Amino acid sequence: LHLACRECQRKKVKCDRIHPCGPCSRAGFTCKPSTRKPRARADKGVDAELRERILKLERLVGTFQGDNSVDEKPIESRTNSVGQSSSSAQTNAGSPGSPSIVESASPNTTKYPEPILAMEMFNAYLRHVEPMYKIFHVPSLKAFVVDGQPYLGKEPDAPCNQALKAAIQYAGANSLTAEECQTRYGKSREQLVSSFRQMVDVALYKADALTTTDLATLQALVTYVTSVRILDCSRRTWTLIALLDRIARAMNIHKETSGESIYTAELKRRLWHAIVFVDCYGSVDRGSEPTIHPDTFTRLLPSNVNDEDFGPASTSLAPREGLTEMTLYLVAARGSSMHLRTHVLDVSTLGEQTWQKRLELAYAYQKDVYENHIRHLDLSIPLHREFKGIAEAACHQTILRAVRPMQLDATSAPPRVDSPWVMALAVNILRQADELWQQMGGAWRRMPWAPWHAIAVALASLCSMRGTPEANEAWDLVDKGMSRYAVDVADGPSGMLWKPITKLYKKAATFR
């Protein structure tokens, strides 16, 4: 195919591509044909780099496909429970020394932790995460992870149980502080978590989490989702919540079912209300509506018991009075149920949800928490002091959201913006958040709590209040919150939540 002549290209006119061409003949120009530039020879270095990239992609695809032609025995030996003999560790192709993530020799396998490191991550999970998210029966979990016994009727090396083990180790890694990771393992927190993240992603894929019918796989997925949010402020956790809800409903986790054993029913109650809690957390975290409707499930709240009170062979279970291992979890579960009731999306009932009725529900929740849980705490125990702070903050947040809902409510007018009572509610939350921050040393071991709503309400009040002791205390707490929580708030400092708060801060500072 001939090219347009040089003169037609220069004048940007249509050339008939014959020699001499019509436009040049009519204009009296000398028609000079164009020639194609020779193709540059491919750089061998670029070629080699491209081949290497393709090879890496093929290896990655092979990892997810789980090539059956690869000898499975070394993999199984590497993924045995952490309580087995050291012979399983010797099959790893890693160098001796301190515990580390070791890479297998085969390109079609993923990274697995050495038994010592796996046990440390499991212990970190039990120490920092499990007291808050009581979705497991710890004696059964220890028998599976430490002793290598079957779990929920499946062998320890079943894909569902391997996914559960990987998710627990990932959650344990997320619960460590940056200083602990650097001191113990010589790695940054992000590097350590990334290693376990790859392992749990592959394990969940192999367990077929999207179509699973195994309770252990759903437990693994819930554990994974609650852990992702610690370091990832994107909408990943929020998006996965709907997935948890659908999978749980497909397995009838949301309904009380006759014929279930006490052990199974209790595990399902804990798991379902953990999903409800994560949904409510995502709602508060991003200022959105919850996914789960309160009238679409019948699963009861878990019993107020210790794990030692029941087991797989139990035929009866009597709830305890007072403080148990389930105390904080039940505070969160009851708060989540109340949160859903105040956010009913049914149009027929929306007009009835005035702020006064929401406030009645919030006060009833606060009374229940104090009478059934907080008054039984032993404040000489550091963990109980943390529990008390979390429970009181949850109560005050519930009351604040009743009078200052995160979504616009056109059914009734809330208290005026400069209400000292509303300001006091917001300041109480920020004060408790400050105390919790100091207790935790500024390091989140579980899903972060960024009290952006209380900061926004306090700033709105500070746009018309100044010079009082309350206003000065509010400014002190707001300044701390603005510097602490920007990186933890949903979508980060440049997200849709924090940017308006920054503008409101500037407006309040101008009035100050």
Keywords:
mainly alpha, CD2-Gal4, two-stranded antiparallel sheet, 21 helices
Report on this model:
The protein has 512 residues and is mainly α. Among the domains are: 1-35, CD2-Gal4 (Irregular), CATH 4.10.240; 418-512. The protein contains 21 helices and two strands. The chain has a two-stranded antiparallel ribbon. The radius of gyration is 30 Å and the shape is globular.
Measured by DSSP, the beta-strand proportion falls in under 5%
Number of strands: 2
Q: Which radius of gyration do the C-alpha atoms yield? A: 30 Å
Element order, helices and strands? HHHHHEEHHHHHHHHHHHHHHHH
Tally of helical runs: 21
Structural class: mainly alpha
The biggest beta sheet is recorded as: 2 strands, antiparallel
Query: Biggest sheet: strands side by side, in what order?
Result: 1-2
Q: How would you describe the shape?
A: globular
Uncertain spans, ≥5 residues at pLDDT below 50?
A: 66-109, 345-351
Mean pLDDT score: 81
Helix content: 55-70%
Report, as a whole number of angstroms, the end-to-end distance. 75 Å
Topology:
Blueprint: H1 6-11, H2 22-27, H3 44-65, H4 72-78, H5 87-90, E1 101-102, E2 112-113, H6 115-129, H7 138-145, H8 159-174, H9 178-185, H10 189-206, H11 215-228, H12 236-250, H13 262-286, H14 327-341, H15 347-350, H16 355-372, H17 382-403, H18 420-439, H19 452-462, H20 469-484, H21 498-511
Antiparallel strand pairs: 1-2
Helix pairs in contact: 6-8, 8-10, 8-11, 11-12, 11-13, 12-13, 13-14, 14-16, 14-17, 16-17, 17-18, 18-19, 18-20, 19-20, 19-21
